[in-house]
């Protein structure tokens, strides 16, 4: 399995990536996690990335592409991968194509999870996080918990993150749509873009993604 997952905050992309990663024993490659790991390990590219991050600047394409190349060519990704947060620009997408071609690999799908923005705003603005262990509670979970101010795992205080405020979420969604449109157009033009309904129940979304992957592997249209 080799796929790219697109999806705005709150769509459940992380849940789907986790299910796929466990089922196929392939890494879920999140840009944020990748950067943090590289910086922590103080690799050559990690040190370069840290310089930009410490200065409050975006990590440039050549550094990000280098980090992606390292992991995609490693034994960890031998059986496949799920890319999340990369590519973010058309030049990054073009570089990824070149990279995969050089490794003798191809994508099984570029999958976008579609959502209704108002539903996402409702989901995110209603969730809370534990200040101690970081566990996130959805609105539905909070409704059935007897003590919604305390974490069930560690007893820590539950709070709403600043970026989960309704207006902030709405702005994040607007930015996401604007930033991903050129990428979606790029993959549409090359016949690899597939959009699915991310508002369905988790098992249905999971099955839809599996169908896309197997169909691609079988070489069907």
Could you describe the 3D structure shown?
The protein has 221 residues and is of the alpha/beta class. It has a single domain (2-115, 170-217), classed as 3-Layer(aba) Sandwich (Rossmann fold). 52% of the residues lie in helices and 14% in strands. It has 9 helices and 8 strands. It has helices spanning 13-24, 31-41, 44-54, 61-72, 90-102, 117-126, 139-144, 166-189, 202-217, and strands at 2-6, 28-30, 81-84, 109-114, 128-130, 136-137, 158-159, 193-197. It has a 5-stranded parallel β-sheet, sandwiched between helices. Helix 2 (31-41) packs across helix 3.
User: What is the topology, as strand order, of the major beta sheet?
Assistant: 2-3-1-4-8
Q: How many strands, which pairing sense, and closed or not: the largest β-sheet?
A: 5 strands, parallel
Q: Roughly how many Å is the radius of gyration?
A: 18 Å
- Helix-residue proportion: 40-55%
Number of helices: 9
Q: Could you give me the name of the CATH homologous superfamily?
A: P-loop containing nucleotide triphosphate hydrolases
What's the CATH topology label? Answer: Rossmann fold
CATH architecture: 3-Layer(aba) Sandwich
Quickly give the structural class: alpha/beta
Q: Could you tell me how far the N terminus lies from the C terminus, measured between alpha carbons in angstroms?
A: 17 Å
N-to-C series of helices and strands? EHEHHHEHEHEEHEHEH
CATH top level class name: Alpha Beta
Strand content: 5-15%
Query: Could you tell me the number of beta strands?
Result: 8
Count structural domains. 1
Net shape: globular
Low-confidence spans: pLDDT under 50, at least 5 residues?
none
